[in-house]
Amino acid sequence: MLSLKKLVKSSYLPSLPSQYALETSTPDCMVQDDEETIPIIDYSLLISGNPDQRFKVIEEIGHACRDWGFFMSKFLRYARRGEERIHGTGRACPIKCGTSSKGSAAKAFIWRDYLRAYVHPHFNAPNKPPGFRFLLQPYRSRLKTPLIVVPGKKMNNKLDVESGSQLLAINFYPPCPHPETSMGIPPHTDHGLLTLLVQNDVAGLEILHKGKWVPIDPPLNSFLVNTGDHLEILTNGKYKSLEHRATTNNKLTRISIVTSHGPPFDTIVLPAPEFVGGGNYPPAGYRGTEYREHFELQQKNQLGLNKTFLDHVRL
Fold first, then answer.
1. Residue 33 has pLDDT above 60, yes or no
2. Which of 64, 39, 44 has the alpha carbon at shortest distance from 54?
């Protein structure tokens, strides 16, 4: 299939191709401007010489993970991205490039090109463009910083996060002739413990918070951090993995770089004892599963439409 980038550049598209058109439905409930704002946290305070400041930012991260499942970091910096022409097949392929994907339960193709590579524990990266591998090595190492705090050193050791998986995805959303009936990525939650996202200056990410879609427009040179399904399971629902989506627009290209962090694939993730019962917490609300089960269910398209991995493992 021709990539969207080539399709948009080579063709005049007065209307949206039918295979990308979503079924019309009731308009989504959106927040008004400034009605809801995502927490912004200054990660530099974690290395402050003032212990009160360090404690304060740790508390802020905890509140953000409980109330939002997302927060923006003003401290982390990132390397620039590149484009790649490499193709793989199957979710287990260490490097994969694709376009316009959809699951068997989906009604339409999504408006996106992507490159995906597993960069840890085994480093995989394309050889083109020149210098991309060189930039990616320190980039993926520095992105482990949030794992020091969320979920914390004790949990990291228990899950052997240092030997766990790190998946990099670069998403390319070209201008779409009819954004009202198309979708960059449909509503979903993320696997793993944490996901970090950085993007260019084009908005498009929306988070489902308290029943309303909240548009997110992170400042340049900042990261958006969100908790994943397996961190919600690990904390027995204390930290939330919220649904989010990528919308399209008809004027500008949006590019995002997403890195998800998880334990080794054979790790069984279940609610940690310190978050279960004892008067302070509810009984275990999720069954334990191997981390790889998430990918196997997706690959077999067994989750179904409008059903998340968390729906599959809730007790």
1. no
2. 44
